Amino acid sequence: MPSTFLSSPIGKKMGMALTGLILYGFLVGHLLGNLLLLKDDGGRSFNAYSDFLINHPLLIPAEIFLVVVFALHLFLAISVTRDNRRARPVGYQTTQSVGGRSFASHTMIYSGVVILVFLVLHLKTFKYGDKPSGLYDLVLATFQQTGYLIWYAVAMLVLGFHLWHAFHSAFQTLSIRSDKIKSLGLVLCLVLALGFGFLPVYVGVLK
Ligand code: HEM
Question: pTM, whole model, 2 decimals?
Answer without folding.
Answer: 0.90
